[in-house]
Amino acid sequence: MSILPRIIKPAIFGALVLTSLPGWAEPELELTSVINTAIENDPWLRQSARMQDALMEESYADGALPDPRVTIGAANLPTDTFDTGQEGMTQATIGFSQRIPRGDSRHLASEKKTRLADVQPFRRENRREQVTERVTHLWLELWRSQESIRLIEDKRGLFEQLSDVAEAGYTSATMGSRQQDIIRASLELTRLEDRLAALNTQLASNRESLGEWIGAEAAQLPVTGQIPPELSTGLPDRWRETNIDGLIRHPSIRATDQLIDAQAIDVDLARQAYKPEWSVFAQYGYRDRAPNGQDRADLFSVGIGFDLPIFTGNRQDRKLRSSTARLEAARSERILKMRDLQARARAAMARMEQLDDRIRLYRQTLLPQMEEQASAALTAYDNDDGDFAEAVRARIDELNAQVELTQILAERAKSLASFRYLTANSSEDPSLKLPNHQD
């Protein structure tokens, strides 16, 4: 028996099995995975963690006593002979001193660094929310460009058919086609090519921007064909009026609160300057024997020292007023940040309401009317009862409306992503939560 059938039969069977299986789907960029990758690869988060570690180490260091000071010297040497045994007061000395900072300044300095370290977790949380917003906007721009290209490429076949119909009618002279109809059809195809070129340019630019966060190679993959449900859902009625109490839990506000606490410690540190700084010292002096061989007693000294902060007008008072002013400035900055978040959240809410109205108008009225108009114009032209230019114009208007709806959907999703950032941690409503990502 020939070996050829033994090879061909299994090959045919394998081909039939493979063709019966669903085709391998091309990998796509899902928004959640893009966000997770961007956050995981963000070097700013690692920098913040290192900064927190550095501040905690400084906190321990600032809470410790200053290093003691040791002095070694010779005292009361006679300048005529420099003989250590000539005078009874000549001695070799070794001393020890320890400075004790003012009041509670060590504890307060340590506490300040701890508060500054506590700022970093909130800054990282805010950064993750910012990255989520930024990457979501870039993903939506990719989706908008990709979906617009898909719509135009789907319609290009129709315009090619119209061009063929016009050319066939002109050639056969049975449909009343004119040369200008052929030119018009060719012109619209050229315009479509130009729009595709412009959209592909935008698509390439958006891919490069997204590549900064997830890598250039990954950014070349297409995005999923639909906007994720969490970016297309509506908002509860209770969010129609964004309140300040909800925004207090925003990570940027909580970071500001920690900075205010650190500024308050600066005020307490300035008050410590009114207290004296103490020091203790001890000194041992060795004396050589007298010229006659008599032993001399060694000497030991001990004492304390402190400064007198009595002239406070140009130093302590001014530093206290300066620290108090900085504290009030930080509190004012917090109020301004709260107002900014609230205003931007309400602006995003207003944009979403207007875009929702436009989306309903397009889906319920405008697109059905344009599709009906385009079909009627094409039918009239086929029945030699309409103008070719009108049929083409109706199809172009329908395509433009579909592309415009794509842009509106992307803008609405971007507004919701911004609203989510502005109201981060302000609600436990699942519809307002961001896609899951790892801290």
Question: Would you mind describing this structure in some detail?
Answer:
It is a single chain. This protein is α+β, with helices and mostly antiparallel strands. It has two domains: 35-65 and 103-274 and 324-432, Outer membrane efflux proteins (OEP); 67-100 and 277-308. The chain has helices spanning 3-20, 31-40, 43-62, 105-172, 179-214, 244-247, 251-272, 316-382, 388-422; strands at 69-75, 91-100, 278-286, 299-306. The two termini are 67 Å apart.
List keywords for this structure.
alpha+beta; Outer membrane efflux proteins (OEP); 9 helices; 64% helix; disordered N terminus; disordered C terminus
Subunit arrangement of the protein: single chain
Largest β sheet strand count, sense and barrel closure: 4 strands, antiparallel
The overall average pLDDT, rounded, is 82
**Structural class category:** alpha+beta
In the CATH hierarchy, the third-tier topology of the largest domain is known as Outer membrane efflux proteins (OEP)
Low-confidence spans = 1-24, 428-439
Secondary-structure element series: HHHEEHHHHEEHH
Strand content: 5-15%
Q: Can you give the helix content as a percent range?
A: 55-70%
- Describe the strand arrangement of the main beta sheet, using strand numbers: 1-2-3-4
What's the total number of strands?
A: 4
Number of helices: 9
Question: At the first level of CATH, what is the class of the largest domain?
Answer: Mainly Alpha
Number of domains: 2
Please report the distance between the alpha carbons of the first and last residues.
Answer: 67 Å
CATH architecture label of the largest domain: Up-down Bundle
CATH-level-4 superfamily name of the largest domain: Outer membrane efflux proteins (OEP)
